[in-house]
Design brief:
The chain is mainly α. 79% of the residues lie in helices and 0% in strands. The longest helix has 27 residues.
Length: 100
């Protein structure tokens, strides 16, 4: 039953899974405690248009996805929300998320 774990590539995969689990657990806990779960979802969803544009325009997806993720929720939510500092971020992020 444990014979596959003797293979070197399986051992590498298990080590990567352990490292990713630790990092994702810490990051996920921080996101939930800060109340940023909706914002984290919005950034992940906003990368999709960047991937589509990168493929359509013929440049690397590694440039398109982070660019769209940085511009869409951050700049778009700021533009939708306006200059009011007392306004909540949630509705503005929701509108940008639907547009993405």
């Amino acid at each position: 039953m444990f014979d596959p774990f003797a293979l070197p590539y399986v051992q590498d995969a298990v080590a990567e899974i352990v490292l990713l689990a630790l990092a994702a657990g810490l990051l996920g806990t921080w996101i939930v405690l800060r109340g940023l779960a909706f914002h984290a979802h919005a950034v992940g969803t906003a990368t999709f248009p960047g991937l589509v544009l990168a493929d359509g325009l013929g440049f690397a997806a590694a440039l398109g996805a982070p660019g769209a993720a940085a511009l869409s929720p951050a700049g778009g939510a700021g533009a939708v929300r306006g200059r009011r500092d007392d306004a909540e971020h949630g509705p503005a992020v929701a509108l940008v998320l639907v547009a993405c």
